[in-house]
Amino acid sequence: MSTYTIISPVTEKPVQELHLADVAETDATIAKAQKAFESWRLVTPGDRAKLLRKFAAIVDAHNEELAQLEVLNSGHTIGNARWEAGNVRDVLNYYSAAPERLFGRQIPVPNGIDITFKEPLGVIGIIVPWNFPMPIAGWGFGPALAAGNTVVLKPAELTPLTAIRLGELALEAGIPEGVFNVIPGKGSVVGDRFVTHPLVRKIVFTGSTGVGKQIMRGCADQVKRLTLELGGKSANIIFADADIEKAAAGAPGAVFDNAGQDCCARSRILIQRSAYDKFMELFEGAVKKFRVEDPSLDTAEMGPLISKVQFDRVSEFLPSGSPIAFQGNKPEGAGYWFAPTVLTPKDSNDRAYREEIFGPVVSVLPFEDEADAIRIANDSEYGLSGSIWSRDIGRAVRVSRAVEAGNLSVNSNSSVRYWTPFGGYKQSGLGRELGPDALDAFTETKNVFFDTQV
Ligand code: NAD
To answer: What is the arithmetic mean of pLDDT over 251-272?
Structure first.
């Protein structure tokens, strides 16, 4: 029997011992989810909606408990963790409106009636990373359940506690046994079985681009449906005509939130050369003030990295002689603390500039003009997110149309909303989550012709 010891990233002490599922247990859970699908798909739209609203209400009633659990397991700041539990509630409420609005179309045809139906797929396998355990789980199971599918969900080995609790809360809400199943286990065992098991009809994967590619290859064998949310190296593009004070004040949060372990982190700052000195002075002040401290404190803006492994991985990006312009503060003592770090590489060939670090490290590069900014921003294999700062509305429109990324914000760093689509260009992903269109990712369109001439 395989077990895993969860370690607190704040204290480096064991939190809980957990059983990891093997292939036989995974198969048994998939079989249970398939059985539950037969009846869940037939629950009337109104009743399915009510159950999702009840689930949302119970998640809301347990917001503080879920948030504290995330602080304990993942070292998220308490402010973030409360938002994350609230996001699960909001996603459930948003998609609770879907069962009664899962419209098909009536298409004019000769000699009959043609109707399309949005049919559920069956069992959906959701594979979640450790960086945002609650929201990423909810973005999968909310629309999947609303569309009439059942779910098997594998949390990351490092951060399973909130997902397990959400599974219990679903049962408390009256979601029938077998409809929403959480299976802690290894990616190479449980996650891989989701890919190879023929009764899992779709995979929703969020994680590294390398594992995403492997899963995509695996899904090809069964032409299995797939949504991928992968890595990022997003650009924060600041023009000289922007509100530089506001851009500089927001830049630390845009990359150091969740200790930089965020696929949307704006980890490349591109600043127009004529505003470079002014920006750097303001940015340094903001980074030095950024509060890296015990994440259970209400004032904390950043906690530790998730693990020793991640700490070592991030450290490797900063060999001696790295172009460090300045760093923020971090606590001493136990915990995987990493000081916010600002690099000023000579050019875009620097490894820390090009690769996703998934830690609190940002590279700043100057650019000359609009065309230069677009060229540099798009010179990346990724295309997930990004910001554009300018007071010139024409320029803001042109640049936001030209940047190859799925989620942009203008004069803001906020690009994730549960009611708008989320996903990546290029190697940042495939398909979109959230918003009105996510339901398409959890349904097949069936076309039926009724002959009226007989
Ligand atoms: P990871 O790819 O190592 O693991 C992600 C999940 O996949 C885990 O649950 C893991 O157990 C599982 N897994 C690993 N190997 C597997 C296999 N062979 N088959 C099936 N499942 C397997 O990533 P991580 O280190 O947990 O997360 C960090 C990465 O996630 C970063 O690269 C980040 O950019 C990305 N991410 C992307 C988004 C997005 O929305 N685009 C969001 C969050 C994180």
So the answer is: 98
What value does the CA radius of gyration of the chain take, rounded to a whole number of Å? 23
Task: Place 215 in a pLDDT band, splitting at 50, 70 and 90.
Answer: very high
Rounded distance from Cα 209 to ligand 1 centre (Å): 8
pLDDT digits (tens, 9 = 90+) for 150-173: 999 999 999 999 999 999 999 999
Residue 1 has pLDDT above 90, yes or no: no
Say which residues have a Cβ less than 8 Å from residue 70's Cβ, sequence separation at least 6: 76, 81, 84, 85, 133, 134, 159, 161, 162
Q: How far is the CA of 332 from the centre of ligand 1 (A)?
A: 29
Residue 208 Cα to ligand 1 middle (Å):
4
Q: Of all atoms in ligand 1, which is nearest to the CA of residue 210? A: 2
State pLDDT tens for residues 18-63: 999 999 999 999 999 999 999 999 999 999 999 999 999 999 999 9
User: 235-416 has which CATH code?
Assistant: 3.40.309.10
- Which of 382, 107, 29 shows the shortest CA–CA distance to 229? 382
**CA pair distance 13, 159, nearest whole angstrom:** 15
Please write the tens of the pLDDT for every residue from 92-117.
999 999 999 999 999 999 999 999 99
- The one-letter amino acid code at 238 reads I
pLDDT of residue 454: 87
- Does domain 2-230+428-451 bear CATH number 3.40.605.10? yes
- Write out the two tokens for 317: 């990006």
Catalytic residues: 229, 263
- Digit-coded pLDDT (tens) for 58-87: 999 999 999 999 999 999 999 999 999 999
| Residue ranges around ligand 1 (CB below 6 Å) | 127-132, 136, 154, 156-157, 187-188, 191-192, 206-208, 211, 214-215, 229-232, 263, 356, 358, 384, 424, 428-429
Atom from ligand 1 closest to the CA of residue 231:
34
- For the segment 339-370, what is each residue's pLDDT rounded down to a tens digit? 999 999 999 999 999 999 999 999 999 999 99
Domain ranges (residues) in the chain:
2-230+428-451, 235-416
The structure's pTM equals 0.97
Q: Of 194, 214, 213, 195, which Cα lies nearest the Cα of 153? A: 194
> How many angstroms separate the CA atoms of 250 and 50, rounded?
39
